[in-house]
Specification:
This protein has 18 helices and 20 strands. The protein is an alpha+beta fold. Zinc ion binds next to helix 4. The site of zinc ion has 4 residues, from helix 4.
Protein backbone atom coordinates (compact mmCIF):
# COMPACT_ATOMS: atom_id res chain seq x y z
CA UNK A 1 0.00 0.00 0.00
CA UNK A 2 1.47 3.31 -1.09
CA UNK A 3 -0.61 6.14 0.34
CA UNK A 4 0.99 8.58 -2.11
CA UNK A 5 -0.22 6.95 -5.32
CA UNK A 6 -3.63 6.34 -6.88
CA UNK A 7 -2.16 3.44 -8.82
CA UNK A 8 -2.75 1.22 -5.79
CA UNK A 9 -6.47 1.42 -6.63
CA UNK A 10 -5.78 -0.10 -10.02
CA UNK A 11 -5.96 -3.82 -10.76
CA UNK A 12 -4.74 -3.08 -14.27
CA UNK A 13 -0.97 -2.70 -14.63
CA UNK A 14 1.40 -0.93 -17.00
CA UNK A 15 4.92 -2.18 -17.75
CA UNK A 16 6.43 -0.08 -20.54
CA UNK A 17 6.31 3.62 -21.36
CA UNK A 18 6.97 5.29 -24.72
CA UNK A 19 7.34 9.01 -24.41
CA UNK A 20 7.25 11.46 -27.29
CA UNK A 21 7.74 15.00 -25.99
CA UNK A 22 8.68 18.37 -27.36
CA UNK A 23 10.43 20.85 -25.03
CA UNK A 24 9.23 24.43 -25.43
CA UNK A 25 11.67 26.85 -23.79
CA UNK A 26 9.42 29.84 -24.52
CA UNK A 27 6.35 28.44 -22.86
CA UNK A 28 8.24 26.33 -20.29
CA UNK A 29 6.27 23.23 -21.19
CA UNK A 30 6.73 19.69 -22.39
CA UNK A 31 4.01 18.42 -24.67
CA UNK A 32 3.31 15.22 -26.57
CA UNK A 33 2.24 11.73 -25.66
CA UNK A 34 2.91 9.13 -23.01
CA UNK A 35 1.97 5.68 -24.27
CA UNK A 36 1.70 2.89 -21.71
CA UNK A 37 1.62 -0.81 -22.47
CA UNK A 38 -1.26 -2.20 -20.43
CA UNK A 39 -1.91 -5.53 -18.74
CA UNK A 40 -5.54 -5.19 -17.77
CA UNK A 41 -5.78 -8.31 -15.59
CA UNK A 42 -9.47 -8.32 -16.50
CA UNK A 43 -10.03 -4.92 -14.91
CA UNK A 44 -11.99 -2.14 -16.62
CA UNK A 45 -10.27 0.83 -15.05
CA UNK A 46 -6.68 2.05 -14.93
CA UNK A 47 -5.56 4.74 -12.49
CA UNK A 48 -2.44 6.82 -13.08
CA UNK A 49 -1.03 9.74 -11.08
CA UNK A 50 -0.94 13.25 -12.53
CA UNK A 51 -0.44 16.70 -11.12
CA UNK A 52 -1.06 19.90 -13.04
CA UNK A 53 -1.09 18.12 -16.40
CA UNK A 54 -3.38 19.32 -19.16
CA UNK A 55 -4.71 16.04 -20.59
CA UNK A 56 -5.95 16.47 -24.17
CA UNK A 57 -7.01 12.93 -25.04
CA UNK A 58 -6.57 9.26 -24.20
CA UNK A 59 -6.59 6.72 -27.02
CA UNK A 60 -6.11 2.97 -27.39
CA UNK A 61 -3.75 1.26 -29.85
CA UNK A 62 -6.25 1.68 -32.69
CA UNK A 63 -6.57 5.40 -32.14
CA UNK A 64 -10.01 5.01 -30.56
CA UNK A 65 -10.75 7.52 -27.83
CA UNK A 66 -11.08 6.14 -24.30
CA UNK A 67 -13.15 7.99 -21.75
CA UNK A 68 -11.24 9.40 -18.83
CA UNK A 69 -11.68 11.70 -15.85
CA UNK A 70 -9.49 13.46 -13.33
CA UNK A 71 -10.16 13.37 -9.60
CA UNK A 72 -10.29 16.55 -7.56
CA UNK A 73 -6.87 18.15 -7.22
CA UNK A 74 -4.96 17.49 -4.00
CA UNK A 75 -2.18 19.97 -3.27
CA UNK A 76 0.38 17.22 -2.62
CA UNK A 77 -0.91 14.23 -4.55
CA UNK A 78 -2.43 15.98 -7.58
CA UNK A 79 -5.27 14.28 -9.51
CA UNK A 80 -5.79 10.62 -10.25
CA UNK A 81 -6.32 9.99 -13.97
CA UNK A 82 -9.04 7.38 -14.32
CA UNK A 83 -9.13 5.68 -17.73
CA UNK A 84 -12.12 3.48 -18.48
CA UNK A 85 -12.92 0.45 -20.64
CA UNK A 86 -9.39 -0.81 -20.76
CA UNK A 87 -10.23 -4.52 -20.29
CA UNK A 88 -9.28 -5.46 -23.89
CA UNK A 89 -6.84 -2.67 -24.53
CA UNK A 90 -3.11 -3.32 -25.15
CA UNK A 91 -1.97 0.26 -24.71
CA UNK A 92 -3.20 3.71 -23.73
CA UNK A 93 -1.77 6.80 -25.37
CA UNK A 94 -2.20 9.99 -23.36
CA UNK A 95 -1.75 13.33 -25.15
CA UNK A 96 -0.88 16.09 -22.69
CA UNK A 97 1.00 19.28 -21.89
CA UNK A 98 2.80 20.00 -18.64
CA UNK A 99 2.13 23.14 -16.64
CA UNK A 100 4.73 25.88 -16.90
CA UNK A 101 4.79 25.56 -13.09
CA UNK A 102 5.45 21.79 -13.08
CA UNK A 103 7.34 21.23 -9.86
CA UNK A 104 9.71 18.61 -11.20
CA UNK A 105 11.05 20.89 -13.88
CA UNK A 106 13.32 23.89 -13.65
CA UNK A 107 13.72 26.03 -16.76
CA UNK A 108 16.78 28.26 -16.69
CA UNK A 109 17.58 31.03 -19.09
CA UNK A 110 20.44 32.91 -17.51
CA UNK A 111 21.41 36.20 -19.09
CA UNK A 112 23.92 35.70 -21.87
CA UNK A 113 24.06 31.96 -21.41
CA UNK A 114 22.39 28.99 -23.08
CA UNK A 115 19.10 27.76 -21.73
CA UNK A 116 19.00 24.70 -19.52
CA UNK A 117 16.23 22.54 -18.12
CA UNK A 118 16.26 19.58 -15.79
CA UNK A 119 13.80 17.42 -13.90
CA UNK A 120 13.86 16.18 -10.32
CA UNK A 121 11.22 13.45 -9.97
CA UNK A 122 11.90 12.15 -6.46
CA UNK A 123 9.80 11.78 -4.40
CA UNK A 124 6.44 12.19 -6.16
CA UNK A 125 7.12 14.84 -8.79
CA UNK A 126 7.34 12.51 -11.82
CA UNK A 127 3.57 12.97 -12.04
CA UNK A 128 4.07 16.68 -12.76
CA UNK A 129 5.69 15.81 -16.12
CA UNK A 130 4.46 12.29 -16.97
CA UNK A 131 1.11 10.63 -16.25
CA UNK A 132 2.43 7.51 -14.51
CA UNK A 133 2.18 5.01 -11.66
CA UNK A 134 4.08 7.38 -9.36
CA UNK A 135 5.08 4.98 -6.63
CA UNK A 136 8.52 3.52 -5.96
CA UNK A 137 6.91 0.09 -5.61
CA UNK A 138 6.21 -0.33 -9.34
CA UNK A 139 8.73 -0.65 -12.14
CA UNK A 140 8.69 -0.32 -15.91
CA UNK A 141 11.01 0.01 -18.90
CA UNK A 142 10.86 3.01 -21.20
CA UNK A 143 11.78 4.47 -24.55
CA UNK A 144 11.55 8.13 -25.49
CA UNK A 145 11.78 10.59 -28.32
CA UNK A 146 12.61 14.10 -27.11
CA UNK A 147 12.56 17.16 -29.40
CA UNK A 148 14.65 20.14 -28.32
CA UNK A 149 16.04 23.35 -29.86
CA UNK A 150 18.81 22.59 -32.38
CA UNK A 151 21.85 23.71 -30.42
CA UNK A 152 21.04 21.72 -27.26
CA UNK A 153 21.56 18.13 -26.13
CA UNK A 154 18.93 16.04 -24.37
CA UNK A 155 19.92 13.44 -21.77
CA UNK A 156 17.83 10.95 -19.79
CA UNK A 157 18.16 8.18 -17.21
CA UNK A 158 18.73 5.87 -20.20
CA UNK A 159 21.20 5.14 -22.99
CA UNK A 160 22.53 8.57 -23.86
CA UNK A 161 24.09 10.36 -26.83
CA UNK A 162 27.59 11.81 -26.53
CA UNK A 163 27.12 14.36 -29.28
CA UNK A 164 24.44 16.81 -30.28
CA UNK A 165 22.06 15.72 -33.02
CA UNK A 166 21.66 17.81 -36.19
CA UNK A 167 17.90 18.11 -35.92
CA UNK A 168 17.40 18.41 -32.16
CA UNK A 169 15.67 15.02 -31.99
CA UNK A 170 16.96 12.41 -29.54
CA UNK A 171 15.93 8.80 -29.00
CA UNK A 172 16.35 6.98 -25.72
CA UNK A 173 16.02 3.44 -24.54
CA UNK A 174 15.95 2.19 -20.94
CA UNK A 175 15.91 -1.60 -20.99
CA UNK A 176 16.25 -2.16 -17.25
CA UNK A 177 13.04 -1.57 -15.34
CA UNK A 178 12.92 1.38 -12.97
CA UNK A 179 10.38 3.13 -10.73
CA UNK A 180 8.92 6.51 -11.74
CA UNK A 181 11.04 8.60 -9.37
CA UNK A 182 14.07 7.67 -11.47
CA UNK A 183 12.59 9.16 -14.63
CA UNK A 184 14.88 12.03 -15.56
CA UNK A 185 15.42 14.48 -18.39
CA UNK A 186 17.90 17.31 -18.84
CA UNK A 187 18.40 19.60 -21.81
CA UNK A 188 21.30 21.96 -22.22
CA UNK A 189 24.34 23.05 -24.15
CA UNK A 190 26.53 20.31 -22.70
CA UNK A 191 29.51 18.33 -23.91
CA UNK A 192 30.83 14.92 -22.95
CA UNK A 193 34.22 13.81 -21.62
CA UNK A 194 35.03 10.13 -21.03
CA UNK A 195 36.43 9.09 -17.63
CA UNK A 196 36.91 5.40 -18.46
CA UNK A 197 35.47 2.77 -20.80
CA UNK A 198 32.13 2.79 -19.01
CA UNK A 199 32.09 6.15 -17.21
CA UNK A 200 31.98 9.75 -18.34
CA UNK A 201 30.88 13.24 -17.49
CA UNK A 202 28.53 15.74 -19.18
CA UNK A 203 28.79 19.44 -18.40
CA UNK A 204 28.59 22.88 -19.95
CA UNK A 205 31.78 23.77 -21.84
CA UNK A 206 33.27 26.10 -19.23
CA UNK A 207 33.34 23.47 -16.50
CA UNK A 208 33.71 20.25 -18.50
CA UNK A 209 37.50 19.94 -18.03
CA UNK A 210 37.31 20.82 -14.34
CA UNK A 211 34.56 18.27 -13.85
CA UNK A 212 36.48 15.55 -15.69
CA UNK A 213 39.48 16.21 -13.43
CA UNK A 214 37.40 16.28 -10.26
CA UNK A 215 35.68 12.97 -11.05
CA UNK A 216 38.73 11.17 -12.48
CA UNK A 217 38.59 8.51 -9.75
CA UNK A 218 35.06 7.40 -10.66
CA UNK A 219 36.23 4.15 -12.27
CA UNK A 220 38.17 3.26 -9.09
CA UNK A 221 34.95 3.71 -7.16
CA UNK A 222 32.99 1.46 -9.53
CA UNK A 223 35.66 -1.23 -9.24
CA UNK A 224 35.60 -0.95 -5.43
CA UNK A 225 31.79 -1.08 -5.34
CA UNK A 226 31.66 -4.18 -7.55
CA UNK A 227 34.26 -5.91 -5.40
CA UNK A 228 32.04 -5.28 -2.37
CA UNK A 229 28.52 -6.09 -3.48
CA UNK A 230 28.46 -7.55 -6.98
CA UNK A 231 28.51 -6.43 -10.57
CA UNK A 232 27.25 -3.05 -11.76
CA UNK A 233 23.97 -3.76 -13.51
CA UNK A 234 23.41 -0.59 -15.51
CA UNK A 235 26.19 -0.85 -18.14
CA UNK A 236 27.33 2.78 -18.14
CA UNK A 237 27.84 5.19 -15.23
CA UNK A 238 27.85 8.82 -16.34
CA UNK A 239 27.56 12.06 -14.37
CA UNK A 240 25.75 15.19 -15.50
CA UNK A 241 26.86 18.42 -13.82
CA UNK A 242 23.81 20.64 -13.45
CA UNK A 243 23.50 24.38 -12.84
CA UNK A 244 23.97 25.48 -9.21
CA UNK A 245 20.22 25.82 -8.67
CA UNK A 246 19.87 22.03 -8.51
CA UNK A 247 18.21 21.55 -5.11
CA UNK A 248 20.16 18.42 -4.11
CA UNK A 249 23.76 17.28 -3.96
CA UNK A 250 23.05 14.53 -6.37
CA UNK A 251 20.23 12.43 -7.75
CA UNK A 252 20.89 8.81 -8.53
CA UNK A 253 19.13 8.71 -11.89
CA UNK A 254 20.19 5.35 -13.32
CA UNK A 255 23.04 5.43 -15.85
CA UNK A 256 23.25 9.21 -15.37
CA UNK A 257 23.79 10.71 -11.92
CA UNK A 258 22.65 14.33 -11.72
CA UNK A 259 25.15 16.31 -9.62
CA UNK A 260 25.42 19.78 -8.17
CA UNK A 261 28.43 21.81 -9.38
CA UNK A 262 29.08 22.68 -5.71
CA UNK A 263 31.09 19.45 -5.34
CA UNK A 264 33.65 20.65 -7.87
CA UNK A 265 36.03 21.99 -5.22
CA UNK A 266 39.19 21.78 -7.31
CA UNK A 267 40.81 19.21 -5.00
CA UNK A 268 38.57 16.11 -5.36
CA UNK A 269 37.65 16.50 -1.70
CA UNK A 270 33.87 16.28 -2.14
CA UNK A 271 33.65 13.20 -4.35
CA UNK A 272 32.07 11.12 -1.57
CA UNK A 273 28.89 12.40 -3.18
CA UNK A 274 29.74 10.46 -6.33
CA UNK A 275 30.40 7.35 -4.22
CA UNK A 276 26.97 7.92 -2.68
CA UNK A 277 25.12 8.24 -5.99
CA UNK A 278 27.06 5.31 -7.42
CA UNK A 279 26.12 3.18 -4.39
CA UNK A 280 22.46 3.88 -5.21
CA UNK A 281 23.00 1.78 -8.34
CA UNK A 282 22.59 -1.11 -5.88
CA UNK A 283 20.69 0.27 -2.89
CA UNK A 284 17.72 2.18 -4.27
CA UNK A 285 17.91 1.62 -7.99
CA UNK A 286 18.38 -2.16 -7.91
CA UNK A 287 16.58 -2.86 -4.61
CA UNK A 288 14.06 -0.09 -4.13
CA UNK A 289 12.12 1.11 -1.10
CA UNK A 290 8.54 -0.02 -1.65
CA UNK A 291 7.03 3.21 -0.29
CA UNK A 292 8.44 6.50 1.00
CA UNK A 293 7.81 5.24 4.55
CA UNK A 294 10.66 2.81 3.87
CA UNK A 295 13.02 5.55 2.64
CA UNK A 296 15.82 4.39 4.97
CA UNK A 297 15.97 1.17 2.90
CA UNK A 298 17.30 3.39 0.10
CA UNK A 299 19.37 5.91 2.04
CA UNK A 300 20.68 4.11 5.11
CA UNK A 301 22.12 1.34 2.94
CA UNK A 302 23.53 3.89 0.54
CA UNK A 303 25.38 5.87 3.22
CA UNK A 304 26.80 2.59 4.55
CA UNK A 305 27.85 1.55 1.04
CA UNK A 306 29.23 5.05 0.29
CA UNK A 307 31.49 4.92 3.34
CA UNK A 308 32.69 1.45 2.36
CA UNK A 309 33.55 2.62 -1.16
CA UNK A 310 35.43 5.62 0.27
CA UNK A 311 37.27 3.36 2.68
CA UNK A 312 38.28 1.00 -0.14
CA UNK A 313 39.54 3.84 -2.36
CA UNK A 314 40.95 6.34 0.18
CA UNK A 315 41.54 4.31 3.36
CA UNK A 316 39.75 4.12 6.70
CA UNK A 317 41.31 7.27 8.17
CA UNK A 318 39.41 9.11 5.44
CA UNK A 319 36.11 7.24 5.64
CA UNK A 320 36.05 7.47 9.43
CA UNK A 321 35.97 11.25 9.08
CA UNK A 322 32.81 10.86 6.98
CA UNK A 323 31.34 8.57 9.64
CA UNK A 324 32.21 11.00 12.42
CA UNK A 325 30.49 13.82 10.54
CA UNK A 326 27.45 11.56 10.02
CA UNK A 327 27.37 10.91 13.74
CA UNK A 328 27.42 14.60 14.62
CA UNK A 329 24.71 15.28 12.03
CA UNK A 330 22.33 12.61 13.24
CA UNK A 331 22.73 13.48 16.92
CA UNK A 332 21.91 17.11 16.14
CA UNK A 333 18.98 16.22 13.91
CA UNK A 334 17.50 13.84 16.45
CA UNK A 335 17.81 16.43 19.22
CA UNK A 336 16.07 18.95 17.02
CA UNK A 337 13.29 16.58 15.88
CA UNK A 338 12.58 15.34 19.41
CA UNK A 339 11.33 18.85 20.21
CA UNK A 340 8.90 19.21 17.34
CA UNK A 341 8.35 15.97 15.42
CA UNK A 342 9.60 12.99 17.48
CA UNK A 343 7.71 10.46 15.32
CA UNK A 344 9.99 11.36 12.43
CA UNK A 345 13.05 10.06 14.28
CA UNK A 346 11.90 6.50 13.53
CA UNK A 347 13.53 4.67 10.65
CA UNK A 348 10.17 3.33 9.54
CA UNK A 349 8.13 6.45 8.89
CA UNK A 350 4.43 7.17 8.66
CA UNK A 351 3.94 9.85 6.02
CA UNK A 352 0.21 9.31 5.57
CA UNK A 353 -1.45 12.59 4.60
CA UNK A 354 1.90 14.35 4.33
CA UNK A 355 4.34 15.26 1.62
CA UNK A 356 6.83 12.39 1.32
CA UNK A 357 9.52 15.04 1.01
CA UNK A 358 9.13 15.36 4.82
CA UNK A 359 10.91 12.03 5.12
CA UNK A 360 14.13 13.44 3.69
CA UNK A 361 16.20 13.97 6.83
CA UNK A 362 19.41 12.76 8.45
CA UNK A 363 17.32 10.01 10.10
CA UNK A 364 16.89 7.90 6.98
CA UNK A 365 20.50 8.52 5.98
CA UNK A 366 22.58 8.51 9.13
CA UNK A 367 20.44 6.70 11.69
CA UNK A 368 19.99 4.09 8.95
CA UNK A 369 23.74 4.04 8.43
CA UNK A 370 24.55 3.55 12.09
CA UNK A 371 21.99 0.76 12.42
CA UNK A 372 23.70 -1.15 9.61
CA UNK A 373 27.12 -0.33 11.02
CA UNK A 374 26.01 -1.76 14.36
CA UNK A 375 24.88 -4.97 12.65
CA UNK A 376 28.30 -5.16 10.98
CA UNK A 377 30.12 -4.57 14.27
CA UNK A 378 28.00 -7.20 16.00
CA UNK A 379 28.44 -10.07 13.55
CA UNK A 380 31.72 -9.15 11.86
CA UNK A 381 32.45 -7.54 8.52
CA UNK A 382 33.01 -10.70 6.51
CA UNK A 383 29.63 -12.19 7.36
CA UNK A 384 27.86 -8.87 6.83
CA UNK A 385 29.46 -8.31 3.41
CA UNK A 386 28.45 -11.78 2.25
CA UNK A 387 24.93 -11.12 3.50
CA UNK A 388 24.66 -7.78 1.70
CA UNK A 389 25.99 -9.18 -1.55
CA UNK A 390 23.36 -11.94 -1.44
CA UNK A 391 20.67 -9.44 -0.46
CA UNK A 392 21.28 -7.27 -3.53
CA UNK A 393 21.48 -10.31 -5.78
CA UNK A 394 18.33 -11.92 -4.38
CA UNK A 395 16.20 -8.78 -4.73
CA UNK A 396 17.65 -7.16 -7.84
CA UNK A 397 15.16 -5.10 -9.85
CA UNK A 398 12.71 -5.59 -7.01
CA UNK A 399 11.18 -3.64 -4.16
CA UNK A 400 11.72 -3.88 -0.43
CA UNK A 401 9.64 -2.96 2.58
CA UNK A 402 11.09 -2.50 6.03
CA UNK A 403 9.28 -5.62 7.23
CA UNK A 404 10.51 -7.82 4.39
CA UNK A 405 14.05 -6.67 5.06
CA UNK A 406 13.75 -7.49 8.75
CA UNK A 407 12.40 -10.95 7.89
CA UNK A 408 15.32 -11.46 5.53
CA UNK A 409 17.75 -10.26 8.20
CA UNK A 410 16.27 -12.69 10.72
CA UNK A 411 16.23 -15.62 8.32
CA UNK A 412 19.70 -15.11 6.87
CA UNK A 413 21.93 -13.37 9.35
CA UNK A 414 21.02 -12.66 12.96
CA UNK A 415 20.43 -15.12 15.75
CA UNK A 416 17.77 -14.28 18.29
CA UNK A 417 20.37 -13.18 20.83
CA UNK A 418 22.14 -10.97 18.27
CA UNK A 419 18.77 -9.46 17.37
CA UNK A 420 18.21 -8.63 21.03
CA UNK A 421 21.75 -7.43 21.56
CA UNK A 422 21.43 -4.97 18.69
CA UNK A 423 17.91 -4.00 19.64
CA UNK A 424 16.69 -4.20 16.06
CA UNK A 425 13.10 -3.30 16.87
CA UNK A 426 14.08 -0.27 18.89
CA UNK A 427 16.40 0.91 16.11
CA UNK A 428 13.76 0.58 13.42
CA UNK A 429 10.53 1.45 15.20
CA UNK A 430 11.72 3.42 18.21
CA UNK A 431 12.13 7.17 18.53
CA UNK A 432 15.44 8.92 19.14
CA UNK A 433 18.82 7.24 19.14
CA UNK A 434 19.43 3.96 21.02
CA UNK A 435 22.16 3.89 23.67
CA UNK A 436 24.32 1.55 21.57
CA UNK A 437 24.90 4.08 18.81
CA UNK A 438 28.32 3.03 17.43
CA UNK A 439 31.30 5.13 18.41
CA UNK A 440 33.57 6.53 15.73
CA UNK A 441 37.28 6.95 16.42
CA UNK A 442 38.95 9.35 14.03
CA UNK A 443 42.60 10.12 14.71
CA UNK A 444 42.59 12.88 12.18
CA UNK A 445 39.63 14.52 13.90
CA UNK A 446 41.36 14.16 17.27
CA UNK A 447 44.10 16.38 15.86
CA UNK A 448 41.52 18.83 14.59
CA UNK A 449 39.92 18.95 18.03
CA UNK A 450 43.29 20.01 19.46
CA UNK A 451 43.48 22.72 16.83
CA UNK A 452 40.05 23.93 17.94
CA UNK A 453 41.28 24.30 21.51
CA UNK A 454 44.29 26.21 20.30
CA UNK A 455 42.20 28.56 18.19
CA UNK A 456 39.83 29.24 21.10
CA UNK A 457 42.83 30.26 23.17
CA UNK A 458 43.67 32.81 20.51
CA UNK A 459 46.58 30.99 18.88
CA UNK A 460 46.67 30.14 15.20
CA UNK A 461 46.58 26.34 14.76
CA UNK A 462 49.53 24.75 12.99
CA UNK A 463 49.61 21.86 10.52
CA UNK A 464 46.43 22.79 8.68
CA UNK A 465 48.05 22.83 5.22
CA UNK A 466 47.21 19.21 4.48
CA UNK A 467 43.68 19.34 5.80
CA UNK A 468 40.83 18.08 3.64
CA UNK A 469 37.39 19.63 3.53
CA UNK A 470 36.23 17.24 6.23
CA UNK A 471 38.87 18.43 8.67
CA UNK A 472 37.90 22.04 8.02
CA UNK A 473 34.25 21.19 8.60
CA UNK A 474 35.10 19.55 11.91
CA UNK A 475 37.18 22.56 12.85
CA UNK A 476 34.47 25.11 12.06
CA UNK A 477 31.78 23.04 13.79
CA UNK A 478 34.05 22.54 16.80
CA UNK A 479 34.77 26.22 17.21
CA UNK A 480 31.13 27.12 16.66
CA UNK A 481 29.94 24.66 19.31
CA UNK A 482 32.33 26.03 21.95
CA UNK A 483 32.32 29.75 21.30
CA UNK A 484 30.93 31.97 24.03
CA UNK A 485 28.20 34.42 23.22
CA UNK A 486 30.78 37.17 22.75
CA UNK A 487 32.74 35.19 20.19
CA UNK A 488 32.60 37.81 17.50
CA UNK A 489 36.30 38.65 17.74
CA UNK A 490 37.25 35.00 17.42
CA UNK A 491 35.10 34.69 14.30
CA UNK A 492 36.83 37.73 12.82
CA UNK A 493 40.23 36.31 13.79
CA UNK A 494 39.46 32.95 12.14
CA UNK A 495 38.38 34.70 8.96
CA UNK A 496 41.58 36.69 8.97
CA UNK A 497 43.69 33.56 9.45
CA UNK A 498 41.93 31.25 7.05
CA UNK A 499 39.82 33.43 4.72
CA UNK A 500 36.74 31.25 5.16
CA UNK A 501 34.33 33.91 3.85
CA UNK A 502 36.13 33.83 0.50
CA UNK A 503 36.52 30.04 0.27
CA UNK A 504 35.74 28.44 -3.08
CA UNK A 505 34.46 25.35 -1.27
CA UNK A 506 30.69 25.31 -0.80
CA UNK A 507 30.72 22.86 2.12
CA UNK A 508 33.16 25.05 4.02
CA UNK A 509 31.15 28.17 3.24
CA UNK A 510 27.89 26.61 4.38
CA UNK A 511 29.47 25.50 7.67
CA UNK A 512 31.13 28.88 8.13
CA UNK A 513 27.87 30.84 7.92
CA UNK A 514 26.80 29.26 11.23
CA UNK A 515 29.30 31.09 13.47
CA UNK A 516 29.08 34.12 11.17
CA UNK A 517 25.34 34.36 11.78
CA UNK A 518 25.44 33.42 15.46
CA UNK A 519 27.93 36.20 16.23
CA UNK A 520 26.52 38.69 13.74
CA UNK A 521 29.82 38.96 11.91
CA UNK A 522 28.20 41.22 9.34
CA UNK A 523 31.44 41.84 7.44
CA UNK A 524 30.83 38.44 5.82
CA UNK A 525 27.14 39.01 5.05
CA UNK A 526 27.73 40.20 1.48
CA UNK A 527 29.56 36.93 0.69
CA UNK A 528 26.83 34.97 2.44
CA UNK A 529 24.19 36.76 0.38
CA UNK A 530 26.10 36.01 -2.85
CA UNK A 531 26.29 32.33 -1.84
CA UNK A 532 22.57 32.11 -1.07
CA UNK A 533 21.72 33.68 -4.42
CA UNK A 534 24.13 31.58 -6.51
CA UNK A 535 23.53 28.18 -4.91
CA UNK A 536 20.15 26.45 -4.74
CA UNK A 537 21.20 23.32 -2.89
CA UNK A 538 18.69 22.83 -0.10
CA UNK A 539 21.17 21.20 2.27
CA UNK A 540 23.04 24.53 2.39
CA UNK A 541 20.05 26.87 2.27
CA UNK A 542 17.98 25.40 5.09
CA UNK A 543 20.50 25.64 7.95
CA UNK A 544 21.64 29.10 6.83
CA UNK A 545 18.18 30.64 6.62
CA UNK A 546 17.16 28.81 9.80
CA UNK A 547 20.14 30.20 11.70
CA UNK A 548 19.17 33.71 10.63
CA UNK A 549 15.60 33.10 11.71
CA UNK A 550 16.59 31.68 15.09
CA UNK A 551 18.89 34.58 15.91
CA UNK A 552 16.22 37.23 15.37
CA UNK A 553 17.57 38.16 11.95
CA UNK A 554 14.58 36.94 9.96
CA UNK A 555 14.38 40.28 8.13
CA UNK A 556 17.92 39.72 6.83
CA UNK A 557 16.85 36.23 5.75
CA UNK A 558 13.71 37.49 4.01
CA UNK A 559 15.53 40.26 2.18
CA UNK A 560 18.10 37.83 0.79
CA UNK A 561 15.46 35.22 0.03
CA UNK A 562 13.41 37.68 -1.98
CA UNK A 563 16.38 38.19 -4.31
CA UNK A 564 17.37 34.53 -4.39
CA UNK A 565 13.98 32.85 -4.70
CA UNK A 566 13.52 33.23 -8.49
CA UNK A 567 16.65 31.19 -9.11
CA UNK A 568 15.70 28.29 -6.79
CA UNK A 569 14.10 25.04 -7.88
CA UNK A 570 10.54 24.46 -6.59
CA UNK A 571 11.79 21.83 -4.14
CA UNK A 572 13.98 24.39 -2.38
CA UNK A 573 11.41 27.18 -2.69
CA UNK A 574 8.79 25.09 -0.96
CA UNK A 575 11.04 24.41 2.03
CA UNK A 576 12.20 28.04 2.36
CA UNK A 577 8.65 29.39 1.95
CA UNK A 578 7.61 27.30 4.93
CA UNK A 579 10.66 28.24 6.95
CA UNK A 580 10.48 31.97 6.36
CA UNK A 581 6.71 32.35 6.19
ZN1 LIG B 1 20.98 9.09 -1.47
Amino acid sequence: MDVHSSYQNSDARVNHLSLDLKADFDKHTLSGTATWRVVSNGADVLYLDTRGLDIHSVKDENGEALSFSLSEDDSVLGSALRIENIRDVAQVSIAYTTSSEAEAIQWLEPQGRSPFMFTQSQAILARTWIPCPDSPGWRFTYSATIRVPNNLMALMSAENPTEKSEDGIYHFEMKQNIPSYLMALAIGDVGFAPLSERAGVYAEAEILDKAAWEFAETEDMIVAAEALYGSYEWERYDILVLPASFPFGGMENPRLTFATPTIIAGDRSLTALIAHELAHSWSGNLVTNATWNDFWINEGFTVYFEHRIMEAVYGSSYSEMLSALSRTDVIEEVEDFMKSRPEDTRLKLDLTGRNPDDGVSRIAYDKGYFFLRLVEETIGREAFDAFLKDYFQAHRFGVMTTERFLDYLKANLLSESQWEQIGVDEWVYGKGLPGNLPQVESERFALVDQAVERALEGNKPEGTDEWTTHEWLRFIQGVHAQLDTDGRNTVAQLDQWFGFSHSGNSEILAAWWQPVIAHKYTEAYPQMERFLIDVGRRKFLTPTYRALKETSQIEVARTIYEKARPSYHAVSRQTMDLLLG
